[in-house]
Amino acid sequence: MLHQASTTDTPPAEVAAQDDHVRMIFGILEGEQEADLLLRNLNILDVHSETVYPGTLLVHGERIIALNPDESIVRFRETFEGEGLYAIPGLIDAHLHFESQLAHPAAFGEAIVPSGTTTVFGETLDFASAAGAEAVDAARALFADHDRLPYRLYAFAPGKKTSTEVTEAMLAMDPVIGLGELAHLSYMTGNADDFRKSALGRANAGVVNCHWGVTALSDTLLNYMPAIGVDNNHDVWNEDDIEKSIRYGLNTQIKFGVGSPEVIRTMLRAIVKRRWPAENFQLCADNISVDRVLRQGHIDWVISLAIEMGMPPIKAIKMGTLYAARSFHRDRDLGSLSPGRFADIVLTDSLSRINPRYVFKGGKLVAKDRRLLEPVGIDYSVLAKEPRPGLGDLRAEQLDLAPIEVSDDGTQAKVLLFDVYGRGHLKFAQEIWVPFRDGAVVPEYEGAQLNRISIVQRYADGARHIVNGLFKGVSIDRGAVSTFWPAPSAYFVVVGADSAEMCGNLKQLDGLVGGCVVTEDGDVKAVLPLDFYGVMADMDLAGLVEATRSIDDALAKLGNHNEGEPVVNKLLTLFISLDRFGFMK
Q1: Could you tell me which residues come within 8 angstroms of residue 21 by beta carbon, excluding any fewer than 6 positions away?
Q2: What is the number of alpha carbons within 13 Å of residue 98 lying toward its C-beta?
Q3: Which residues, 6+ apart, have CB-to-CB distance to 323 below 8 Å?
Q4: Given a cut of 90, is residue 576 above it in pLDDT?
Q5: Using the 8-state DSSP alphabet, how is residue 465 labeled?
Q6: Torsion angle of the four alpha carbons 193, 195, 201, 203, in this order, in degrees rounded to the nearest 10
Q7: pLDDT per residue as tens digits for the range 118-152
Q8: Domains and CATH numbers, the chain
Q9: CA 311, 312, 313, 319 torsion: positive or negative?
Q10: Which residues in 261-344 belong to E strands, given as ranges?
């Protein structure tokens, strides 16, 4: 039974503070006290009636307190000339893995806020898992100054990849509002940790997210998540997934930051074609690079894409505002330009193609013409760790590609093929037949030359776990590139053509806490260090983008042609599937 506080539980000091507040609002509207800001000459989008009207917004204490106030009565300290621009609610990313973009919270804000995003609902499970025994203290340090960020952060305690003790401790933290995505495979076997975490989420009366696993579960087991009160699901990839998700009553988050660039178009086409009510959907990145945000945009981009594909503009905007707020029971604070809501406002010159000219958080102008106005200046260096190498005994021959099976005539070998875009719409890992000559695998498939890939356990207790195969997603003529991810298990991925080069590359990366390294003939050509537990960079936005692009530039000189997300982000998405499909211990 969810607990609801009665008025007798309310401390007298809180009642007194609320009394002061309501009297202040009355005083401002009566002209007896000053408001903070009046925004004039706007075309305001009312997401509730789905209309646009000319007007003004009066702001005080970070919130809108009046629409079209009587300016002969009200007083205000500042005014802002809206230039006749459209005023829409601040945009909301409904589901983001807070470490997947590799930027710490302040650097991430430098990228997303100029695109109009003023609220993020963020998962922290990989960060907490990477921090291990230090997870609780690390989370406190990560959240310590969240109110100084130029966007609102609502976070979730890990629903998987950490102990129940970590989950319980994080549920008590600010700004945590509920339980993060639950594992969608382990509950098929009645995992006790999943039961305990689900119980903690319900007992704390918070939101519960899920990774629904429609492609992995029977129809009977699909009932489990909505039946225990899960609110949101982002695990949809195609029309059939979406239909099931909304039928089972889940707020369905349409993601655009992972997988093939065609995935988001596939899902938006389905919504438009089937004429499903937009109120079922919210927009989210899930995993996205800051580089892609800078090049393409964030929630503003996917709203514009939805409109381009035939969705009415106001419906598309509501998926990125009101419907997202409502799915987390936050629509009394977010998602509309109505009295009592936060004055998180985007001024755009078009509703059909979102172009954030001005962005306000709580009535403060934080970005103009896609540039953040002030540096955030939060120091996260307390999260930096010292490297702990684990590959001292790794030998090059351990990375050699051996056949799973050789054909009867000895001309073909069966090997594993991994696909960087293999989640959700293509098979991530499959067994294939390739040529076998002179006792060696020839890395050719369907007329294309492929690189090799090795998945290597960092810290071995006994025999080191290594999986070798072929790889689609990076194609280099020489050299090697490697990445590392510590959650839930510490593993490397290295791509190349020569075992000695790949081994040397891994040992270079092993000298860092984590990150990405490109080598040629043993020489380091580019490096991106991730000093915060191996999942975040101790850099501002400019430094992170420069390091990320240096990886792509170095790989281009080795023959790779990259499109979409930077290579480091593409490679890091592999670890999600490597864990999900059992390729990591």
Answers
A1: none
A2: 31
A3: 251, 278, 279, 280, 281, 282, 335
A4: no
A5: P
A6: -120
A7: 999 999 999 999 999 999 999 999 999 999 999 99
A8: 88-372 (3.20.20.140), 396-581 (no CATH)
A9: negative
A10: 281-284
